[in-house]
Amino acid sequence: MVSENSSLDKKGRSVVLKWIPFIARPFLIVFNLIFVFFGIGLLMAGVISMTHLRSYVRTLGPDLSVVPVLFAALGCVVILVSVMGVLGGITMNSFVLACYSGLMLVLIFGELALGFVTMKEQQSVENETKIRVMKAMAFYNFQQASKITVDAIQKWLKCCGIVDYRDWITVLGKSEVPASCCVTPGNCQRMYNLTDSNKPPFGVRTNGCRTALNTWMRNNMGKVTFVVLLLCGLQILGVVLGVLLVCSTKMKWMSEEKDLK
C-alpha cells in the first residue's frame, strides 16, 4: 500500500514537473517580451517629452517637468524587470525568477498607488491645469513658448479662450482671436464687432478650453483606469507564472535529490 502511494505521488510529481514548465515557460517569455516593448515605448515617450516638448512642459509649469522623467524612469524599470523575466524563463534559474516575481509585485503596488492618488487628486489636477493655461494665455503676446503652447492646446481641444472666444479681448487688447481658434484655418472671421460680441464670429470655435479640458479629462479618466487595471492584471499573471516556475524548479531539484537517495 505504501509503495503504491509512493508510486502515485511520484507519478503526480512527474506530471506537475512536466506540464507547469511546458505551459508557464513560453507564456512568461512571450508576456515579458511584450512588456519589454511597452517599457521601450514609455522610455521613448519620456525622452521625446524632455527634448521636443520641453517648451510646452515649461510653459504649463515647472512641476510638470518631472512627468517626462517619471515616464523615462518607469520605462527603464519595466524593461529591467521584463528582461529579468525573459532570462528567468529561458534559463529556469529559480533565483532570477524569484527576483523577477518580487520586483513585479513592487511595480504593481507602485502603479496601483499612483493610480489611486491620481483619481483622488483629479479635481486638484484639473484646477491646477486651468490656472496654468490661463497664465500661459496671459503671456501669449510676450513669450513665444506660451504662444506655441496655447495655440497647440486650442487646436488639440478644439476650443477658444478659457470661457469662450471673448477672453482674447483682454489678452490681445482688441476684438480678435488667434488663428488657432478657427474651425478651418484661413476660412474664419478672426476680427469681430465689440458691440455685437454676443454673436460668434464666422468659423470661430465657441466653446471655451476650460469646459473642453474638463470633458477630455473626465472622458479619458475611465480609459486610463482601465489600462492601469489591465496592466496590473497582466503583471499579476506574470508573478503567478514566475512563482509556478520557481516551485516547479524546486520540486524538480527535490525529486532528483530524492531519487539519488
Q: Assign the structural class, choosing from mainly alpha, mainly beta, alpha/beta, alpha+beta, or little secondary structure.
A: mainly alpha
Which residues form runs of ≥5 with pLDDT under 50?
1-5
The percentage of residues in β strands lies in under 5%
Q: What is the count of β-strands?
A: 0
Q: Number of domains in the coordinates?
A: 2
SSE string: HHHHHHHH
Query: Number of helical runs?
Result: 8
Mean pLDDT score, rounded? 77
C-alpha end-to-end distance: 21 Å
Q: Indicate the overall shape.
A: elongated
* Helical percentage: over 70%
Radius of gyration: 28 Å
Largest sheet, described in full? Answer: none
Quaternary assembly: single chain
Keywords:
8 helices, elongated, 2 domains, mainly alpha, Cd81 Antigen, Extracellular Domain, Chain: A, 261 residues
SSE layout and pairings?
Blueprint: H1 2-51, H2 54-60, H3 66-91, H4 94-120, H5 122-138, H6 144-157, H7 168-172, H8 209-260
Helix pairs in contact: 1-3, 1-8, 2-6, 3-4, 4-8
Walk me through the structure.
This protein folds into 2 domains: 2-119 and 232-260, no CATH class; 125-210, Orthogonal Bundle (Cd81 Antigen, Extracellular Domain, Chain: A), CATH 1.10.1450.10. Mean pLDDT is 77; it is low at 1-5. It is elongated and about 90 Å long. The chain is mainly alpha-helical and 261 residues long. The protein has 8 helices and no strands. Helices cover 76% and strands 0% of the residues. The two termini are 21 Å apart. Helix 1 (2-51) runs antiparallel to helix 8 (209-260), helix 2 (54-60) crosses helix 6 and helix 4 packs antiparallel against helix 8.
